[in-house]
Amino acid sequence: MSLLERIETCRRWNRSRYRPFQVAGQKVGWVTHDFARRLKDFPKAFRVSDVAVEMAPGLGDFAQRSAAMAEVLAGLSADGTVSGWRNEPYPVGTDFYAPPLLQMERAAVPLFGVRAYGVHINGFTGDGAALELWVAKRSKTKQTAPGKLDHLVAGGQPLGLSLMDNVVKECGEEAGMMPALARTARPAGFVSYVTERVEGLRNDICFVYDVALPADFRPVNEDGEIEEFYLWRIDQVRTRLSETDDFKFNVALVNIDFLVRRGYLSPDEPGYVAIVEGLRL
Amino acid sequence: MSLLERIETCRRWNRSRYRPFQVAGQKVGWVTHDFARRLKDFPKAFRVSDVAVEMAPGLGDFAQRSAAMAEVLAGLSADGTVSGWRNEPYPVGTDFYAPPLLQMERAAVPLFGVRAYGVHINGFTGDGAALELWVAKRSKTKQTAPGKLDHLVAGGQPLGLSLMDNVVKECGEEAGMMPALARTARPAGFVSYVTERVEGLRNDICFVYDVALPADFRPVNEDGEIEEFYLWRIDQVRTRLSETDDFKFNVALVNIDFLVRRGYLSPDEPGYVAIVEGLRL
After folding, report:
1. What is the pTM (predicted TM-score) of this model?
2. Cβ contact (<8 Å) for A163 and B267?
3. ipTM of predicted assembly, 2 dp
4. Which of A247, B48, B70, B267 would suit a FRET pair with B174, their CA atoms being 20 to 30 Å apart?
C-alpha cells in the first residue's frame, strides 16, 4: 500500500545528526550539531557542550528565557539563519497542559526541534462511500509547502488560546466559516511525528477535528493563503494520497487517520497495521 | 483524569523479568526467566540460554514447529502450568499479514508473550450526547475476567479466518446478530499494549469496529459467555470507566479509544495527550 510512503515521509529522522536542547533540566527539543556550534556565539543564552545545548541556567523564569531567546533570534534573523519571521510566539515546554518554560518565534521552532502543536480540521459532507472531503490548495506564495494540497482549515497553535477557540478562529480566517458552525467540529485524537524538513526538525502534534458541513456550504478564504478549494469524493482523496505526494506531508498523515477512523481502510488489507502504527510516535 | 489509570493498567510490564522468545531468528515474544528454566525440560523443542529462549533450529517449518510446541504444551498442561485449554490454535509470527511461523494453543499464548490479535466491536445507537453504547457483563464462570464489563461483541482472532469473517461469526455467537447487520460494522483502527496479567504477558492488538444498531436491536447471547447486556448513555460509560475498574482491562482501552475518536473527550482537557498516546504501543 503506497499510503505507507506518506507515513514514511513523516518519520525521516537521523538522530545521530542531533543533540538534545534542554531548558531548566528538561529535554524540550533537538538541534543539529552544526546549529549547536552556531549557538556558541550566544554564551549569555546557551551553554553548548558536545552532547547537548542548554539554555543558560541563570535564566530563571519564562520572561528571562523568552527575552534571551528573542535577542538570539533577532541576531539569527539578521544573518538569515532564521527566515520567514511570522510574529507568532509559540510555547516551549515538555507538557502541553503545563505553563511553558519560554516562548519562541514560530519561524525558529524547527531549528530547535521543539514540539509544536496545531489544529487540523477535516471538513466533509455526506457519509459512507458518498462522503466528500473538502480539500484546499495552498497558495504558491506560502512559505512552507507552496501549492500543496491541504485541509479545509489548519493552523498552528499559538500561546494563550484554547484549541477550540483556535479552531473557531482558523475556520473563520481560512474558510469563512461562521463560529456557530465551527463549534460543531468534534475532536478525534491527534497524529504525531518527528521528521526532517527543509525548515528544520518538525516535532509536532496535530490535533484532529472533524466537522460535518451542510451540502450547500462553500468555503471562502479570508487570509489569501488558499488558492482554491475542491470537494472530492473520499475514494478520490485516497487515490491521490496513494499515488502522489500532492498533499502536504502532515496533511497526508491526518487524511490517512481520517480514512482509518472512518472505516475506509480495511485491517484485512496488508500494510494496515504498519499504517496505523505510523500515525503517532 | 482517572481514565489515565485505565491506560496504565494496560502498560504494566517489568521487562527485566523477561527474556526474548525467538523463532527462526526472529523475536516473536517474551518469556519470564522462571518459565525459561522450566522450558529446559524440553530440549528437543527449545534452546534455552541466559539471554533468550529459541525454538530448536532443526524444526524447519510451520508443521514441525507446531507439532513440537503441541507436544510441549500437552506436557505443561498435564502438570497445570498451562490451564484453561481452549482448543483454539493461534498463529505465531512477527507480521499479521505474513504466513505464521507456527501455531500454538491460545491458552499458552500469554506464557510465551507472543502477540495475539482480537476483534472488539462497539455496538451503539444514536449520536452525540444521546449516543448509547451496548455493554455486556461477562459470565462469572469465564476463565479470564469473570463478571467484568465487556463489549457487545469481542473475540480472539484464530488462524485461517479474515478479520471481517471473525466479526460476523462473533457477532452471531455473542449477540445473536444477523450477518447482514454484522457486516455493516466499520473498522476504526486498533489499540495495542503489552501488560502483565495473572495469565501471563498480554501482548495484543485489538482491532476495533463500530456498528450502528437500530434502536430496537436486542442482543441475545448464544454461547453462554455473557450474563447480561445493558444499553448505557455514553456519559454513563465514561463515568464508569473513570471511577471504577469494572470494565475488563482491554475493553476499557477500546472504550477510551471510542470516546477519543468520536469527540467525547476534549484535547483542551489536561491528560488528553497522555491518554491518546497510551492507546497504542
Report:
1. 0.95
2. yes
3. 0.95
4. B70
